[in-house]
Amino acid sequence: MAANEASQPEATISLEVFRYRPEQEDEPTFQRYEVPYREDWVVLDALNHIKDQIDGTLTYRWSCRMGVCGSCGMMVNGEPKLTCAAFLRDYYPQEIRIEPLNYFPVVRDLVINMDDFLDKLTEVQAWLVPEEEKPVSEGEYLQTPAELAQYKQFSMCINCMLCYSACPVYGQNPDFIGPAAIALAQRYNLDSRDGAADKRAEVIFSHEGIWECTFVGDCTRVCPKNVDPAGAIQQAKVTATSDWYRSVLVPWGK
Amino acid sequence: MPTGWWLKKKTYSLFMLRELTCIFVGGYALLLLILASQLGDEKGFGDILTSPLLIGLQIIALPMVLYHTVTWLNLTPKVLVLWRGEERVNPLLIAGVHYLAWVVVSIVILWVVALHR
Amino acid sequence: MVKSNEPIWWSLFSAGGVVAAFFLPVTIVVTAIGVPADWISPGALQQLLQNPLARLYLFVIISLPLFHWAHRFRYVVADLGLKGLGPVPAIVCYGAAILGTATAAFFLAWR
After folding, report:
1. Interatomic CA distance for residues B84 and B88, integer angstroms
2. A181, A120 contact by CB (below 8 A)
3. H or E element: which one contains B43?
4. In which region does residue A100 sit, left (phi positive, over 0), alpha (psi from -120 to 50) or beta (all else)?
5. In the prediction, which pLDDT does C1 show?
6. How far apart are the CA of B95 and the nearest CA of chain A, in angstroms?
7. Which one of B9, B19, B28 makes the best mutation probe of the C interface by having the most chain C beta carbons within 10 Å?
8. Cα dist. C98→B28, C12, C91 in Å?
9. Do residues C51 and C45 lie in contact, with contact meaning Cβ atoms separated by under 8 Å?
10. I need a labelling partner for A193 at 20 to 30 A (CA). Which of A135, A163, C24, C92 fits?
11. pLDDT digits over A3-34, tens only?
C-alpha cells in the first residue's frame, strides 16, 4: 500500500486565502492556491510553501513555528487559530479558508494592525509595579511557590490576540478592554511582588473593563495556552464587587 | 457586527440559549408572584395552579430552567477558585460538590412538601 | 473612565442565578407536575405557605430570580441588536425587579 501511494500523483489541498493590497484594490478579495498535502504540515507550512514556490506577494506574520511567539494567529475556517498549530490533516480533503484575525484593521493580506491591543496593555499597566522600588543592592523580590501558583496560569499569555478575535463583545464594542489585557492585569494584581492593583482597578473595574463582559467564554475556548481569560474576568468581578461593598459598608476602612 | 452574529457559531448559539433562559427564570418568578398575590383567596390560588395554559408554560420552562442550572453549575469553578497550598482545588470537584448540593436541596424540598400533603 | 455601580446589579444577578439554579427546577416540578398529578393539592400548598419560613422561601425565589432576569435580559436586548436605547433597558429591567420585589414583600409579609 505504502509503495503504491508513493507512485500516485501527489495529493493536494486548496487554500482560499484573503488578499488585500491597498495600493491596487479597494476591497479585499480571495485567492485560491493548490498546495501539496502532507500529513505533518500545518497551515503555516502551506502558507510558507505559497510564499516560497507560488506567490511571493502573499503577506503574513510568523516567527517561531512552535506556539510561543504568538505572531501567526489567523482565522482558519472562521476560527481564530495559531496557524503553526493547525494541521492540514484536520481539514483535508476540504478546502481551508484563511483570513486575518477578526475585528482588527487589516494592513495587508493576513497582517492586522495590533495597535489597539498594545494600547490596552499599556492602559492596564501589564507589567510589574512594586509597591516600593528597592535598590539592586538589597537583592531580589522573593516569592514562595504558593505565591507563584496564584498567577502562573495567567502569565502563560503570548499576546496572540486569538481571544479578541473570538470575543463578540469586543466585536460589538472596540472600547472593551478585552480578554487578554484583563487576564494580564489580573496576572500582575495577583503577583505578591506587585503593588499597583488599585491603579489597574480604575481601568479594569470600569464599564469598558470587566462589566462589559457577558461571559460568552469563547476566549477561553480558543486560547492556545490555557490562560482562561474568561475565568480571570469573572474572578475580577468578584474582587471588584467585594471591594465595592467594603467601600460602601466600611467607608472609613482602606 | 451583524445582528444575527450569535447564529454563526455553535458556541455563540449556546451562549444565547443560556442567556435566553433568563426569560423563563423571570417568567416563572412572575408566576410565583401572582400566586403569592392569591394567598388569601382559595379559589384564585387553585385556579392559577390548575390552569392548563400556565401548566403548559411551566412544562416548557422546566427544560430551560434546567439548562440554566447546568450551565450555571458548570461555570461556578471559573468564578470560585480555591487553593490547597500550591495546588488549585480541582474544578471538577468544585462543580461536583455543587451538583451534589443541588440534588440534596431538591430532595429536601420535595420531602418538606410531601410532609404537608 | 467612570467607576461603575455595576457591582450592585452583578451581585444581585449572581445571587439570583444561584437561587434559580438550586431552587427553581424542584419548585416547578411541584407546581407543574406535582399539582396536576394530584401528588399535592393546591389547598395543601396554600396551607404550607401559611408558615413564615415557606413565605420567606417564596419571597427569595421571587425576588432574586427577578434581578437575575433583569440583568441578563438587559444584555440580551443589546446582543439581539437593539442598541442606542441609552439607559432605557436598564431602568425598565431593574425597575421591574425592584417593583416585583416590593410587591412580593407586600403580599408575603403584610397579608
Report:
1. 6
2. yes
3. helix B42-50
4. beta
5. 43
6. 14
7. B28
8. 16, 11, 10
9. no
10. A163
11. 555 556 789 999 999 999 999 999 999 999 99
